Each structure stands twice: as C-alpha cells, then as structure tokens.
Amino acid sequence: PSQTRRFRRSRATISHLQEEIAKLGSELDALKSTEDIEREEFLRQMLEMNARIRQFQQKASAELAERCSGPPSADGKQGKSAEGQNVSDMNETMDSEGMLTDSADQMNKMNAEVHVLEEEYQKDLLELEKLSQDCLVLQLRHELADVRAKRALMEAVMKETKKLQEIGGYPFHLSRNHFVCATIIICFLDSTQARG
C-alpha cells in the first residue's frame, strides 16, 4: 500500500512536470519567435540608418561641391571675384560649421538609437538563455521523478515476489518470472508515457 501511494505520487509529480515542461516549451517557442521578429526589426532599422547616412553624405558632398564652385567670373572661369572673397569665405565657414554641428547631432542620435536596440537585443538573448536553462532543469526533474517511480515499482514487485516465495515456498525460477513481469510493466509504462 505505501509503495502504491509512493508510486501514485510519483506519477502525479511526473504529470505535473510534463505540464510544466510543455508550458515552458511554448514560452520558449514564443520567445524565439519574438527574438526573430526583433532581429529582423533591428536589421531593418540598421539598413534604414545606413541609407540615411549615405543620403546625408551625398547631400553634404553635393553642397560642398556647390560651394566650392562659385559663379563664373568676368573672364568666364569658375570662381569668385577678389572683392567678395573674404565675406564669402566667412559665410562658407559658418555654413560648414553649422552643417558639421547638424551632422554630429544626427550621428549622435543614430548612435543612441543603435545602442538602445543593441541593449534590447542582449536583454532578449539573456531572457531566452534563462528560459532554456529553466526548461532543462524541469526536464531533468521529470526524468528523476520517472526513475524514482520505476524504482518504487521494481521494489514493490520484488517485495511481493519475496513474500510469495516465503509464503508458498515458490522455487527461485518463479521469482525470475516476477522480475520479468515487473520489467514488462515498466516497459508498458514507458510506452504509455511516450504516447501521453
């Protein structure tokens, strides 16, 4: 009777662990799916940022080329007259500094965005790793409970076999048959668990 109770408790524990493993397995799958989506979003944002940087570089190059080439002078060559050269140079310097400040601000903003995205990605990876470890621990507990249940069943069968030997004077070869029966029962339980 106590062996039977222990066996039933072991079965209940195994059933509970199987439910927990299934639950963690679905959570793990959901996290993997979320991770894939976030990775795709991260890559999309990086490509978008790369396109913005290239666009900015092209715009800056075009503006710089435009400023370097002035209106045609009286002799038909590109350039500026000597009179307005100093004023024009100062304006270009101020415009260039403003453009550099804007560029630096845009780069800082983009770097901050990249940093935030990388932190989120690392956080998701750590969460996924922890969930995987939890799932492994539950699986090991399940296997341990299963082994304990099999052991309890074997002990119960051996104990009953021993009692039968003592009571009825059964020869030793019959106790081997009981052991074979216990082994068959365990195999049946294993196949039932595999299906369930």
TrEMBL record:
<feature type="compositionally biased region" description="Polar residues">
    <location>
        <begin position="83"/>
        <end position="93"/>
    </location>
</feature>
<feature type="coiled-coil region">
    <location>
        <begin position="14"/>
        <end position="59"/>
    </location>
</feature>
<feature type="coiled-coil region">
    <location>
        <begin position="100"/>
        <end position="134"/>
    </location>
</feature>
<protein>
    <submittedName>
        <fullName>Uncharacterized protein</fullName>
    </submittedName>
</protein>
<feature type="region of interest" description="Disordered">
    <location>
        <begin position="62"/>
        <end position="95"/>
    </location>
</feature>
<dbReference type="InterPro" id="IPR053327">
    <property type="entry name" value="KIP"/>
</dbReference>
<keyword id="KW-0175">Coiled coil</keyword>
